[in-house]
Specification:
By secondary structure, the protein is an alpha/beta fold. The protein has a single domain, classed as NADP-dependent oxidoreductase domain (TIM Barrel, Alpha-Beta Barrel). It is 39% helix and 16% strand. It is globular. The two termini are 35 Å apart.
Length: 314
């Protein structure tokens, strides 16, 4: 199948509407409830490289020792990046000390390049900035200064901010430093927290990437299998809404997961949607979901079931 391609904001980068997320491949059972061995991780990335997906998202902090990046490097086999593939990674604090200084950002990026087996990546994010104070991040010698410097030096083409809390991400965008925004779990069938921020960013020429359209698994596995939303305990009204949505989707002959993915893909202000995959079979399944035609009547019914804003992550 083919995937639509979008220009990522004003960056000029052309990305597919689907982006492969690699955090499940780092074998983090505390988040996902299962392990992924190295062989399966490499095979999954190889399946993506052979597919229509031309955008891969990873991070220095995916895995205790950068396992996700290492698996990408093994799949690439030292051949470098295919010309049509966009690879994005993220800088993370020192896992032992929590240091997130300018010096640490440079070190994090170098670690990532070594694991990935590439000389540079076109897009580099500040990852989960909620782990430090905003003023600390913007201070001289802080991580934002380091990212800007990497872009000025031409070591990366574009920089982004990737995290959760919507208000905080908005503050980072207002600095004018960032080319791309990524937020997770906050624009789904069950949660619309990020919609206003996404629309605003898109109108300003900032690339918009929506991650985790399944809400950490609830909208893929169903609320009776995955009780948590967005990696944490949620209001029971969220689970009830997911059950109603699943039943309605079934009445239309549409998998809940396909509707959850389609909800993000159809938004005109989203350039790409990050979906975490954990096996080659999941790659094919995700592409199948993306290709499904979903009736307009289903969208209208699902809209009546959205939990109230006080249930959203914000």
């Amino acid at each position: 199948m083919t995937l639509a391609c979008h220009v990522l904001g004003a960056t000029g980068l052309e990305v597919t509407e689907l982006c492969m997320g690699t955090s499940p491949l780092a074998s983090m059972p505390q988040l996902y409830g299962y392990d992924v061995d190295d062989e399966r991780a490499v095979a999954t990335i190889a399946a993506v490289l052979d597919s229509a997906i031309r955008f891969i998202d990873t991070s220095n902090g995916y895995g205790a020792h950068g396992e996700a990046e290492k698996s990408i490097g093994l799949a690439l086999g030292g051949r470098g990046l295919p010309r049509d593939l966009v690879l994005a990674t993220k800088v993370d604090p020192d896992p032992a000390t929590g240091d997130f200084s300018r010096k640490r950002v440079f070190a994090s990026y170098e670690e990532s390049l070594e694991r990935l087996g590439v000389e540079r990546v076109p897009l580099l994010y500040l990852h989960d900035p909620e782990r430090i104070r905003f003023e600390e991040a913007l201070a001289s010698g802080g991580p934002v200064e380091a990212l800007v410097r990497l872009r000025e030096q031409g070591r990366v083409d574009h920089i982004g901010v990737a995290g959760g809390p919507v208000e905080l991400l908005g503050r980072y965008l207002d600095t004018g430093c960032f080319d791309v925004l990524l937020s997770h779990n906050r624009y789904t069938l069950l949660d619309r927290s990020a919609e206003g921020l996404f629309v605003s960013a898109h109108s300003r020429g900032i690339g918009v990437i929506n991650a985790a359209p399944y809400g950490g698994g609830m909208l893929a596995k169903g609320p009776d299998v995955q009780a948590r939303y967005g990696y944490g305990a949620r209001d029971e009204r969220v689970a009830d809404a997911a059950r109603s949505m699943a039943a309605t989707c079934e009445s239309f002959g549409v998998p809940l997961a396909a509707a959850a993915l389609g909800f993000s893909l159809r938004a005109p202000f989203i350039d790409s949607t990050v979906v975490g995959v954990s096996s080659p079979e999941r790659v094919a399944q995700t592409l199948g979901y993306a290709a499904l035609e979903i009736p307009g009547a289903l969208w209208a019914e699902l809209e009546t079931m959205v939990p109230p804003p006080e249930c959203w992550l914000g």
